[in-house]
Amino acid sequence: MSMALDMGKTDRTLPKLMGLLGKLGPLLALALLVVVGALVSPTFSTTENILNVLTRSSIIGIIAIGATFVITSRGLDLSVGAMAALVAGLSVMVMNGLSASLSATLAVVLGLVAALFLGAAAGFVNGTLTVKGRVEAFIVTLGTMGIMRSLVTWLSDGGSISLDFALRGVGRPLYYGTVLGIPVPIIVFGLLAIAGELVLTRLRFGRHVAAIGSNSEVARYSAISVDKVRIATYVLQGVCVGIATLIYVPRLGAVTPSTGMLWELEAIAAVIIGGTALSGGQGRVWGTVAGVLILGVVSNILNLTDFISPHLNGAFQGAIIIVAVFLQRKRVSA
Amino acid sequence: MDQASSALLSLRGISHAFGANRVLKAVDLEVNAGEVLALAGENGAGKSTLMKIIGGYLPPQSGDVLWKQAPLPEGLRTVEDAGITLVHQEFALIPDMTVAENIHLGREPRKWGLIDRARMHRQAREALGLLNAEISPGAGLARLPVASWQIVELAKAFAARPHLLLMDEPTAVLGRDEAAALFDRIRAYTTAGGTVIFTSHRLDEVREIADRVAVLRDGQITLNKPIQDVSEHDIASAMVGREMSDLFVPRITPVVARPVLEVEGLDVPREIGAPVKDASFALYPGEILGVAGLVGAGRTEMFEGLVGLRPAHARRFALSGKDQVLPCAREAWQCGIAYLTEDRKSRGLLLDKDLLVNATLVSGALFGGARIDRRADAADFDAARARFDIRAAGPATTAGQLSGGNQQKLLLAKTLATDPQVVILDEPTRGVDIGAKSQIYRIIAKLAEQGKAVVVISSEMPELIGLAHRILVMDRGRISGVLTQPEDGQISEHEILRLGLGLENEEDAA
């Protein structure tokens, strides 16, 4: 018996190694890019630049953590960019409105709390329409994307929704502040990534998310509350968008109709590059983090060097997505 | 010899296996031009596989198919061109197209290079008229009921003017009048020189339309005679008659007790086939209730309705004597009612997940904490693996890598992990080998011994007879009778067939 098992083990060593290589693919790709960056530009490996890349990546990163859950359960949320803009715009309006009667700090805090609730509410609407209304997620979130985007344009009257100058100083540390030399956005992103990974792999909820994405019928036949879990993934996505706006609003202090444009595609791209299957069932938050950083590092390298125009950033992102999925596809069939 | 050379179609030693499951074992069969051959047999006897081989959908693993004394060319397209058309049990129609477009799909009449719509509609109307069907050629298929789909499929098949028409359960979704119209059409077609092979469960239909009947049992032909030389009893005998008694554990008579579950007036609506109407029954502790009936009789639907997996309504539902409303899917599990699906691959197991995740899915969803306790899960899985004898390399193996029998045992482990009081097993031995079958029978007997109320839905009559204390028989959505094992023997397959095949009236009249 044990003989047979041992033989089985040696037989599987090679595929196992290949599998491990494929599994760690996003991390290896990231490491490779970092080496390339360090070689082509002396500025790249400075602490300041690295922190800059991480800080800039954190907003998309936080949104992409939520997207990992949605996609793992075989859902999709195209509305996150527009949602971020609307939630940011509304929270700025709440802060401005409250600042007349409350202290600046309290106004900002309440505005940020409002952002979390608004994000959750928007996610709940997406989830409910998709799950209970039985309309495809692509259609629902394409619709809510248009609605929310145009609400931002309407609220800003085509211009911008600006935070009162009196309030700007209060929220500033959320983007520009540091703890032990590390910028706050990176800390928030890092903590959320760890939490997300634990939820997806160690909590019952995460297992149910993956089970539903793998085969929702099996989940339904296995006493899992499929509808509740699916709606919860959209709410979680909304909360992540809310958290991202907490960092975004203090950064610029204003929201325009083009805020958050194409964030949904960047977030989805990061999730896919990280090895989460678009068809659901297999998700990993650490992969998403690697995906976000890959996109951030590529863009940074193009900005730092002269031989390729930064305008080609989109082309690189596109190529990376296709190559990443291609490699993962090969791994599965091997 | 003489007859053999004149046969339109000759099958010589056709064998086919899906994995270890040998579906056809050296089948010899001949069909003459102008003949209607009925292919009868229980579910899983190999009828559909044989039809697919003749229709060119499946190449036989060994043996020869001779068509007009020459080997049948390989490939679906060439077989169709040779004049053989198969009407599937599953529809091969495009819902977004009209009836006329579907009937002419791939053979659209043309005029100056463009599709001649007027002619297409005229021809479609004619083809439907021959089946006595009042379906508008311009109607979109998507909005028509399933019986109409079957008629369109048949009209399409006849419109292709084949020499040999293969029909797999053509009347399964048809009403009486539609079936009668189909039979008229078949008579006209064979009078004009056409040949038909069809499968049916319904012996009355076989008698009505066939010239000859061939019976398949376990992949072999057990009867092949002109219809006037055989009785329905002969056909039924040829369909059954295996000795499986040694696979079963002796039944233990349950202690008389109050029912665990009672249901009265259960209705389960259905889009395809007969809805379940006014079903009433009770389940008792320590008793195995067998559920028999043809595919499509509503057995699965009745129990899926009962456990909240599909919309249903009941006049009364009671657990241990206490009335309550029908539970939803999760509530049913919480009430201690477990349902094992007949559809292992698409409803039972997460094929891409490992054994541990699968085995603990239900128990985790019902009683697991928010955090996954990996150590407890692993211990539970080890216990289940020993109890159900699941053979696999290790817990990291994915469910999809297991053999059918081991998958089924994993599904049992998952379903029984919460120690339910009512266990409903839908086709618990489908697609598993004889060894796993006997193990599963022992598990089922053990459940009853422990005082659980057990339901076994099965298409294999010997299985039901060997296991069950009582057998409930369904026919077209209704419970047509409940048979109790007699003191001095066993329920006979003929009794089940009589209730399940709608033969009751005929025998009463005789």
Automatic annotation (TrEMBL), chain A:
PANTHER family with a match to the protein in the record: ABC TRANSPORTER PERMEASE PROTEIN YPHD-RELATED-RELATED, RIBOSE IMPORT PERMEASE PROTEIN RBSC
Tell me the superkingdom of the source: Bacteria
Q: Does the keyword Mitochondrion apply?
A: no
How does this protein lie in the membrane? Multi-pass membrane protein
Q: Where are the transmembrane segments?
A: 20-41, 53-71, 78-98, 104-125, 137-155, 175-200, 231-249, 261-278, 285-302, 308-327
Keyword annotations: Cell membrane, Membrane, Transmembrane, Transmembrane helix
Q: Which GO terms describe its molecular function?
A: transmembrane transporter activity
Query: Which Pfam families does this one have?
Result: BPD_transp_2 (PF02653)
Protein name per the record: Monosaccharide ABC transporter membrane protein, CUT2 family
Chief location of this protein?
membrane
Would you name any one GO CC term? plasma membrane
The record's subcellular location field reads: Cell membrane
InterPro entries the record matches: ABC_transp_permease (IPR001851)
Cell membrane among keywords: yes
Tell me which species this is from: Primorskyibacter flagellatus
TrEMBL record, chain B:
* SMART domains to which the protein is assigned, alphabetical: AAA
The record's listing under Pfam families reads:
ABC_tran
Q: Which organism is it from?
A: Primorskyibacter flagellatus
Which segments constitute the ABC transporter domain? 9-243, 261-501
Query: Record keywords: Cytoplasm included?
Result: no
Q: Which UniProt keywords apply?
A: ATP-binding, Nucleotide-binding, Repeat, Sugar transport, Transport
Instruction: Report if keyword Repeat is assigned.
Output: yes
Tree of life domain? Bacteria
GO terms, molecular function: ATP binding; ATP hydrolysis activity
Protein name, as recorded: Monosaccharide ABC transporter ATP-binding protein, CUT2 family
